[in-house]
Amino acid sequence: MNSARPPPYKRQVAESSLDFLMMQVVTYFLHGPGAAAYLPPLSPRLRTVASRPLPPPLSPADAAAAAAEIRRRLEGVGYDVGHRLVERYAVEKERMDSDLEAVKFVCRDFWEGVFKKQVDVLRTNHKGLYVLTDSNFRWLGRVWANDEPTDGGEDGDGPGGGGVLGGRGKVEDYVVFPCGLICGALTRLGVRCRVTAEIAGGAKCSFSVQVIGG
What we know:
This protein has six helices and four strands, in the order ααααββααββ.
């Protein structure tokens, strides 16, 4: 009788799962507490059939504060993920002695691990500013690929429009999490920084890393 056990089953997850999870994380924050600042007002018909009274509309100042808080929370989630995830890719690497080495590591190894490619262009002014450009940022590509015009018409928010994506929020919202991800990874590597993003059109995106102190 052959009592040999088969090799343990190796569980696998489709690469697209992370892409869609990121989109759902953004959607969760957009529709969570304080997300009213992002949502269009309900039509009179929907107001009539509402099961409970609607809260009063936010003032412009309160709406801006609510939007900033949502982005802060979303970026914080990305920061925590990046802070933990970079350890996986850097575990066998030697200590990085400069900010440039850490940024290059993120552009190559970290980007390859998360997005299955490397950063296309890295620029620096040698004064603590680094610009990482991805000409086809994977997560933005997913957003545009899954954006379908409603009511059979154009909504004026196609690639480069910077508008609202079918009720899922603004395209800029989908780079808040990656900004936190990059910042968390670099901070874990010893680089204190701020990260912002600029969408150049379609899925092309540039992340600006400003090193804090020195």
